[in-house]
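Quick one: structure tokens for this chain, please?
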Amino acid sequence: MKTLPDRRTFLKDAGTLTVSAALLATGAQAFASADAENPPRISAVVYDSRYSSCREFAGALNRKGAAPFDACADIAGLWYGPLRDHLAAHGGAVAGLTTYSDSGVCESFARELRLSLTYEGLHDSRGSAVLTHRVRSIGNVLEIGPVLRGMHSDWAQALGDALARTRLAEAPRQWESSVACTLLPGDHPGFLRSWLLEPLARGRNFRG
């Protein structure tokens, strides 16, 4: 029987992490159970282990108690298997830094669980030597956008930390946006999307 990795091991190996979906599925409850008495607002983070920025983003949220799920495997299998089981047991929001196609799949499955998009970030380097970040959220974007300005290789970690500590507006509001640029990571695939899916407030869908 394999020994489950503890949180410290996950963070130590984040730079080269290539964990199988099966191991993450089994280990998710182990990460979350440590915070059972004070569960994190963001209880799960979906990331793509092929890219360093995604691993750093997941590491930042994992430090705040979110269980990591690798989208590099079967994304639909996650939502109908270990991720759904995790949310049924622990509730909370789901954050992610993934390819655009995977983020769309996540948003679609999340609607079945009454989770709605309250934040998104577009991280685009296509045709450019720099990485441009366009972020928007339901309220409080000024607590998220500025953390990216002046950042270099640590932008994904800073973004994960900001999402973990920022409570977005519960009432429906206009989407607020912010733009920043950072240095381009060597393994950036050209375009990534960060997102946050939270339980619906009073039955309203914030998508728009």
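The chain has one domain: 7-13+23-199.
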